[in-house]
Design brief:
The complex is a heterodimer of chains A (302) and B (298). Chain A has 302 residues and is an alpha/beta fold. Chain A is 35% helix and 27% strand. The chains are: A alpha/beta (302), B mainly alpha (298). Chains A and B meet through helix 2, strand 5, helix 3 and helix 4 of A and helix 1 and helix 4 of B.
Chain lengths: 302, 298
């Protein structure tokens, strides 16, 4: 892929005898990319390798063409990072810490103050900016953590489980913020084990399971299928026979018939078959495939 | 929209299009934050009390001495002065510096590590060495202020009232400035290195401060005990464990007064340079252990 911002080739990492990543080949495009996997799938390990904090046991990786292992300064000059665990100094105000986080990335002091003010406003902490971080609620701390990750205007930001510990309202607001980052020109790599969060915020997904890449690609291509679901009032046998006779791949579950057509419009076929057999129709529509379906299928779950 | 009503603009997100100072800017930020942190600046009031109390105690006698000398109208920067010279003053401030370092060492390293802030440094153009050197630099700046500001006040103040003339007195005693810097370095490394080493492994500030003071006092007591036990083959070498006294010995050596000092290592027959070697060794050990630990964290 020519315009990948992150690539890995044969990437592996082990903590002693425990293999966290196993031969990971990735080409991650610009935009909002989700890193999905269960706890222990290797998401945080991958992010830490991309930051140059962990070194790969085998394989290579590059971020904007630079190797995080050999050129960490180059990589770190262009990235932001929101860790999963707490990373805020409790005896410092949100404003002071945001300024410090910007200056740490080389932003001159005056510009750092301006950016800190702007970004704290952006994440909804403008009113609270002079309060000490130790007094913040979990949701406010997550916002402050996001603020430090983007205050220096990075080219890509790594968000590690950004909704962890948030209540539904806080989670909703955090996902909205993440969705907006793409519009600001900041590429996002967001890791989560909550699949709907990734579906809502990202346009590309990498699925990890047990340290291996399960699937990768645009979410649209993974979830958008031409599979049709028809729920009947009567015996589905005649409909199934008619669909099969026209080359459809058919599955039946009691009164529900699910079929896929390699060529042609499946809705027109459904209309014709229902008219031909005279079957009573309860419901007809596309079968929605979620990331969860794909993940479970890839995992070998029923 | 027109008319007199206000308009609210959603300014959205503005990318940074100005310069980036890179690694140097990051190091400068860590030093600035370190100085603020150890002095309690932009922190809660209780964080300011002890450092500023110590700094005031360090500065106050110098101001009083200069003031008194001005009214009495006499001064000699050397020991025959009724107020003592730089070497005595550094000895007095040295105790305060040790107490300050006991507080500052843990404050510079422990919160970042225990509150997870190291993760933020991991995503900035900063190496482990940059971070640790910048933290040590912050300590150096404040310790230097402790040592140099009162001595400079005395240096300039006493020169101003000296009968020999301001400029000639300043020039005549210029060597003192270098000696003050040398003594400052001895205290910085002699006390700062053990404080950093303890802070590298401690989880909380209070216990780390306590352990540091206990090590300083305890090691000197142990050294005293060993040096008076001639039956022990390591007794003489054990006198070098007196961590509390090495900076004082080097200070006296720098000012040419080592023979006047009563200390455990010198009483055991060690030359003052042995204390300098101990300080250098402890500093290198601290650097190695601290770097090794932080390499795993950042």
């Amino acid at each position: 892929m020519a315009d990948s911002i992150i690539t890995t080739a044969g990437l592996g990492h082990a903590y002693g005898n425990i293999v966290a990543l196993h031969h990971v080949d990735l080409e991650i495009p610009p935009g909002r990319v989700g890193l999905v996997g269960a706890n222990g799938a290797g998401k945080t390990t991958l992010i830490k390798i991309l930051l140059g904090v962990l070194h790969p046991t085998v394989g290579t990786t590059s971020v904007f063409g630079a190797n995080p292992h050999t050129d960490p300064i180059v990589v770190r000059s262009r990235v932001g990072y929101m860790p999963e665990s707490a990373c805020l100094p409790l005896h410092q105000s949100a404003a002071d810490f945001a300024v410090y986080a910007a200056e740490l990335a080389g932003i001159p002091p005056r510009a750092a103050r301006q950016r800190a003010s702007d970004v704290l406003t952006l994440v909804g902490l403008h009113e609270e900016r002079f309060r000490y971080l130790g007094e913040f609620s979990t949701g406010m701390k997550q916002r402050a953590t996001l603020a430090q990750a983007i205050v220096h205007d990075p080219e890509v930001v790594f968000l590690d489980e950004p909704t962890a510990g948030l209540d539904p309202e806080g989670r909703d607001e955090m996902l909205d913020l993440i969705s907006r980052l793409g519009a600001f020109g900041i590429n996002v790599l967001v890791s989560s084990h909550v699949l709907p969060d990734i579906e809502r915020t990202c346009d590309w997904v990498v699925m990890l399971d047990g340290g291996r890449v399960l699937r990768t690609g645009p979410i649209e291509s993974l979830t958008d299928t031409s599979t049709i679901e028809v729920e009947l009032l009567d015996d589905p046998a005649p409909v199934v026979a008619a669909l099969a006779a026209r080359g459809a791949v058919v599955e039946v579950d009691r009164q529900t018939v699910v079929f896929t057509l390699a060529e042609g419009d499946p809705f027109l076929l459904a209309r014709d078959v229902l008219a031909e057999t005279g079957a009573g129709l309860r419901r007809l529509g596309p079968k929605t495939t979620t990331l969860e379906d794909i993940f479970l299928k890839g995992n070998g779950a029923p | 929209m027109s008319g007199r009503g206000g308009v609210v603009f959603d300014l959205g997100y503005k990318p940074h299009e100005g310069p980036r100072l890179g690694r140097l800017g990051a190091v400068r930020a860590v030093i600035k934050d370190g100085v603020r942190r150890v002095l309690g600046l932009r922190r809660r009031a209780r964080k300011k009390v002890l450092p500023w109390l110590l700094f005031s105690i360090a500065l106050l006698p110098a101001a009083v001495f200069v003031g008194l000398a001005f009214f009495v109208g006499t001064f000699s920067p050397e020991a025959e002065s009724p107020f003592g010279g730089h070497v005595e003053y550094i000895g007095l401030v040295g105790v305060l510096v040790m107490l300050f370092i006991a507080l500052a060492g843990p404050e510079l390293l422990i919160p970042d590590r225990e509150e997870g802030v190291l993760a933020v440094y991991s995503s900035r153009p900063l190496t482990v060495g940059d971070y640790l050197l910048a933290r040590a630099g912050a300590m150096a700046i404040v310790v230097a202020a402790f040592m140099i500001v009162p001595n400079l006040l005395m240096y300039i103040g006493f020169a101003a009232i000296d009968e020999g003339g301001f400029a000639s007195t300043l020039a005549g005693n210029a060597d003192d400035l270098l000696r003050i810097l040398g003594a400052t370095a001895a205290y910085l490394f002699g006390y700062g290195a053990p404080a950093f080493l303890i802070a590298t492994y401690a989880k909380r500030n209070g216990p780390a401060t306590g352990v540091f003071l206990a090590v300083m006092v305890g090691s000197t007591a142990v050294a005293g005990g060993l040096s008076t036990a001639p039956d022990l083959p390591a007794g003489r070498w054990g006198s070098l464990l007196s961590l509390l006294q090495h900076p004082e010995i080097v200070r006296s050596w720098i000012f040419g007064q080592a023979s006047d000092l009563d200390s455990i290592p010198t009483d055991a027959g060690f030359e003052p340079w042995a204390s300098l070697v101990v300080i250098v060794l402890v500093t290198f050990l601290t650097a190695a252990f601290t770097y090794r630990r932080y390499r795993r964290l950042m």
